Amino acid sequence: MGKIDPTSPVPKYFQLREILLDLMEDAELPVDAPIPSERELCQRFGLSRMTVRQAVDHLVSEGRLYRVPGKGTFVARPKIEMPLRLVSFTEDMRARGLEPGARDLDRRTMPANAHLARVFDIPPGTGVHVIERLRTADSEPMAVERSHIPATVAPGLLDTPLSDVSLYDVLEKRFGVVFDAGEQTIEAGIADSADARLLDLARGSAVLLLQRRSFMNGTCVELAVSTYRADRYQLHSALEIPRRNRVVPRQ
Ligand code: 16G
Fold first, then answer.
1. Is 90 close to ligand 1, i.e. is its CB under 6 Å away?
2. pLDDT per residue over 95-145, tens digit each?
3. What's the DSSP call for residue 150?
């Protein structure tokens, strides 16, 4: 097991954080296992209570540990990597071996305001379906999704039950909508009280706010405005090498 190096310029709490992360990676501390108590950690690593608490607080706020009042601190599940591909929630969850779910929260058709009219390139006042659903993975709430789809693209869509059903599947099978391009904006946010309740989060928790536009033949067909749990999702992306740094192979 790692040791704290008192001569290192790396703060001691950070060293302890690294040691605990290593233990989690080596599966010595598997998911849902309790970590040693503050007192044990102080004794084992010769650290003050304040330093130990700082390391543990960090890991809790990073979503790597979770606290159960009166019981202790436990190892959290690894976060899900947010797909940067145009896949449906259903497809993504199934690929991870999780059971996708959708709970219908609200559905209505509303006249397009100026913003929606611009996004979909339709006259203001034209009908737009708004479908609000709570998405779950193995019954655990993960995201609140609000999909906007021009009514002309999918007339009668709201008559279809959309609980525990893939919207993209319905769009393809019933309305011939197959997306061929997409773009997405992701930003940090704070859960409002309604989303916090739905997502089983404390009010004011960090969330990821996503706006996705999905296109077919150059026309935007879906605008999804979604709130994802930041304690369950992380972003990972490959990095492109800028042209100036590319290694030119020798002849
Ligand atoms: C994804 C999409 C969402 C879409 C949903 C359909 C985001 C970031 N992504 O979650 O736009 O409505 O898939 O999933 O919002 P479904 O086919 O499983 O209903």
1. yes
2. 989 999 999 999 999 999 999 999 999 999 999 999 999 999 999 999 999
3. E
Do 88 and 186 lie in a common domain?
yes
- Tell me, using a 6 A CB cutoff, whether residue 212 lines ligand 1: yes
Check pocket membership of 147 for ligand 1, CB cut-off 6 A.
Answer: yes
My answer on whether 159 and 40 are in the same domain is: no
Cα(211)–Cα(207) distance, integer angstroms: 13
pLDDT category of residue 247 using cuts at 50, 70 and 90: low
Report the C-alpha gap between 146 and 183 in whole angstroms: 16
In whole angstroms, give the CA distance from residue 220 to residue 215: 4
Decide: 210 in ligand 1 pocket, CB within 6 A: yes
Ligand 1 center from residue 135 Cα (angstroms)? 9
Whether this prediction's pTM lies above 0.90 is answered by: no
Q: Which atom of ligand 1 is nearest to the CA of 226?
A: 15
Residue to mutate (ligand 1; options 80, 86, 88, 119; most atoms within 8 A of CB)? 88
Task: Please report which confidence band the pLDDT of residue 82 belongs to, taking 50, 70 and 90 as the band edges.
Answer: confident
Q: Provide the Cα torsion 198, 201, 207, 209; round to 10°.
A: 10
Which amino acid is present at 104? D
The CATH number that applies at residue 69 is 1.10.10.10
